[in-house]
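Collaborator request, handled under Task 6.
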Amino acid sequence: MNTAQQLNTQFGIAGQLSFREDASGLIVAEISNAQATASLCLQGAHLMTWKPGNQSVPVIWLSRDAKLAAGKSIRGGAPVCWPWFGAHASESGFPGHGFARTVPWQVVESGNEPGGATRLTLRLVASEKTRAQWPHDCTLNLTVVVGETLRMELATENTGVTDFVIGEALHTYFRIGDIGAVRVRGLAGCDYWDKVGGSALKTQAGAISFSGETDRVYINTAAECVIEDDQLKRRIHVAKSGSLSTVVWTPWVEKADKMGDMGQPDGWREMVCVESVNAIENVVKVAAGARHTLIVEYRAEVI
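Structure tokens returned to the collaborator:
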């Protein structure tokens, strides 16, 4: 893999994009332009932070106890779940949410967008270990465009001769004022699998509010979601395409305590996950020679 110095020479953009080696040995891309700041760990192509210029508080939440370590996922940010979401269908020893978030990715392109945003594209590096879990010929790229909005494009290209099926997610954690005082709108009338309520299929009535552990997979929906946050005086818009599931998740106190890296004692109160997903009945068949792209765009509106 390239060193930070090599990456700066090949892909760095003066005053906008640079690469550094973290104390863990992992490489982090730092983006700072006239519109926003962001950071991304090359392991997992894991976007860790994003703060547009119109916000005093970051929009993407990163736990204050988050740790960078080789082969480990990072608590917070926007983990890439791929090529399955949740537990593997048949292999209990395979990692939950797939392997993409814990393996190396390589930088393949960087540049400036016409409006002044900064673009960075990474590609998952296949290995003997990943091929043992996913024996299909394919290319997985993540393109991140950092500006007044944050755009993420996760593209799966089937380069083989047989079809395959993927589950996937951008498992994004959002920074909020307090979990008990926010609402998520956009999913009223949608069916969802309630993972806390014994995997029962239910229908959403009105906006989502939170008073306990919540883990729901909303299905057959491409709707834009809005996180309304009166405390931080903003609305976070989550608009997507190429995704027909949305996961809404908060661990609440008991589960957060067991995790140990949520930012004790109450870091979990300052985050909520609204994830753009293809899971359960919305997994995606990618035909031989075809490409599937999940696109999400985040925008923070001051209220």
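The cover message to the collaborator said: "The CA atoms of residues 189 and 204 lie 5 Å apart. The chain has one domain: 4-297. Please let us know whether this matches your experimental observations."
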